[in-house]
Design goal:
alpha+beta; 4-stranded antiparallel sheet; 2 helices
Length: 76
């Protein structure tokens, strides 16, 4: 089932950050789309919750030096 989550990532500040975050998350199995809001310092991820969880996304971003400060679950 597809879900959307908003990850608050305070270290996002520019297009380089946007590319790094997008390139880190896009290949993760189960991630369907990644949208980065640079001014809002947020990443909206649409994903298949049966394949990947939010913790995996947090781990991937932490490895890229973009730690997630908080997570906001969205509706369907």
């Amino acid at each position: 089932m597809a879900r959307t989550v908003t990850l608050n990532v305070p270290d996002i500040s520019c297009e380089h950050c946007e590319r790094a975050v997008t390139q880190a998350l896009t290949p993760v199995e189960g991630v369907q789309s990644v949208r980065v809001d640079i001014p809002g310092k947020q990443v909206r991820v649409e994903y298949d919750e049966g394949t990947v969880g939010v913790e995996r996304m947090r781990d991937v971003l932490a490895e890229e030096d973009y730690p997630v400060a908080s997570v906001e679950a969205s509706g369907q």
